[in-house]
Amino acid sequence: MRNFSNTDLENLVIYEVNIRQYSREGSFKAFEKDLPVLKKLGVGIIWIMPVQPISLTKRKSDSGKLIEEITEPELRKKVLGSPYSIADYTAVNPEFGTLEDFKDLVSKAHELGIFVILDWVADHTGWDHQWIKEHPEFYHKNQLGEITEPLDYSTGKPIGWDDVAHLNYDCRALYDAMFEQMKFWLTETDIDGFRCDVADMVRLDFWGFAVAKLKEIKPIFMLAESDHREYFEFAFSAGYDWKIHYIMNQIAAGKKNVSDLDEMLVWEQENYPKESVFMRFTSNHDENAWNGSEYERMGDAAEVFAALCFMLPGLPLIYNGQEYDSKKRLKFFEKDEIEKERRKMFSVYKALGKLKNQNPAMNGGFRKADYLRIPTSDDENILAFVREKDGHRLYFIANLSSENRKFSLPVEGVFENFMPGTIHLWKGLELEFSGWQYWILTSLGSD
User: Fold this and answer.
1) CATH number of the structural domain 372-445
2) pTM of the complete model
3) How many CB atoms neighbour CB 113 within 10 A?
4) Burial degree of 349 (CB within 10 A; 0-12, 13-18, 19+)
5) How far apart are CA 121 and CA 53, in angstroms?
6) N or C: which end of the chain has fewer CB within 10 A?
């Protein structure tokens, strides 16, 4: 297995796995069995949600109640808590297996040429963490000297994360302590980097300090849960594209159209460094749990927006269950297994992954392929663009509305559709797409 390199960013697909919900067993071993399946989907980076032990104190349930408020023994057993309420940074939650099991998972992924990143929670710990007693200076405190849950910086009021204690990076000693916890996973398990939870709630200079020291150990991939420009510039390999995600949701709901998407893509190009790498997504663990599956938010538009996430410059994300057309809101604090039956989206993601892995016109990293918008006769509803790199071209044409649309565009030639099928286009040809219909075309030559 080679070490991660920035050149790998061009054609990788990210897969987010919630180990607890991925299988009936909810274990590393059960997930490990499906690594060859993910390889077939073109996955090049696996992002594993936190694997550490979860605090019992103030453990939260799906009802919103803390475990201390639940008296019924059978109900208490179901409360597994948030993976982001960490009791010990350098241990493994026995719910998932052992540290050796995790190492085996990483090793098997590497054998398949897949990188592994671990979700990292630097903003807060669980209330059972040893630092609460041994290093109370690491935490934010109220006027009474009591450690607080995370607070809204603008109002000073709690933001609702009462199951965790808020770390305070005004304490310089915390920098070294947190770095040592991250270093453990690089040196002991050979992971390839981190997805950093609520990265912009942690001081940027900590990330600069930690990432520089981590890169002295090995080359790493750092994904920020942030779309703040300075996080792209200063410490991270890639970040979230929340803005495009929300516009896709609103287009699907009929509240915005393609013009709004065009404006945001131009705004990104003008306001971020050219080398910025966005992770594009229709779902993730937060969206799924709190706002619903992509089918709740996007309905019949879910597939075309999944394809768009692959076609736009950047890194596409598949959240576990999306490859199986799962329409379930997975419970966040309790066991809730995803459904694994191959329907339409498995073949769609497989075809998209193959394109992403093999066609330079899909490059989405620091040396991304060009993106050129193609004008159409209906630019409020029809999105058309070409991606081009080193003589390779891919065309994306989509009706981003729920109604049938007739339109024309200045493209001619003979093309292969990715799903597949030969298509002939010529300038002035009037096309008619049904609601949410799309094509991804590779050129076979001129008529």
Assistant:
1) 2.60.40.1180
2) 0.97
3) 12
4) buried
5) 13
6) C
